[in-house]
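One record is given unchanged without comment:
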Amino acid sequence: MSVVTIQFHTDLLCIWAYVAERRVSELVQAFGDKIEIDPRFCSVFPDAHSKIEQNWKDRGGYEGFNRHLNEVAAKFPHVTVHDRLWLDTRPRTSASAHMFVKAIEAIEKDPQSGDSGTIPYLDRLSTRAASALRIAFFAQARDISDWHVHRDIASQIGMDYDTIQDRILSSEAVAALAADMNQAQAQGITGSPTFVMNGGRQRLFGNVGYRLLEANVQEFLRSDPGGEASWC
């Protein structure tokens, strides 16, 4: 059976990735084991304060950015954005939250963990962790760059934080995050979310509607993507 692999490149502080999360879940529910979601992180908010202060300095600064995010959220009933987002709590970076999730991924991929085969995307603790981090930030305005918040998220999803921290202290998590960043750079990924399919030949960026994602998956399933690459 043909399986479509979809790389899902996101930054946890990106509202459009927060919006897209539901669409990815719907794809998985619709196509089941015909698709494989390969989550990756890209660096959109590595230095969040500088990014917002520079990009929004002529548009109201943090207050203007807050208004923009709430206007975006108003268009999508399935997401919740706190009315004080970025005003009272201002994460310095998305990198620490990304590393936390990569540590959980490392645990899930460890043969000694006792899990046999590939864990379905929606059942993965790393998927639940990423979703919980987005809700903590966007809906609750919590600082998800803070390691204390990560400890709370670990408890929320039923994981021992010290086990996660071991993967961070060993540098396994940062190595996995660096691999994501290197791949994003090699593929020219510059924004979040970016969906990559067909071995990198098909790319969808930004606020991509579910029907467009669905249509692309159906097209790949109807054909043999591996045999249709251009030789020009």
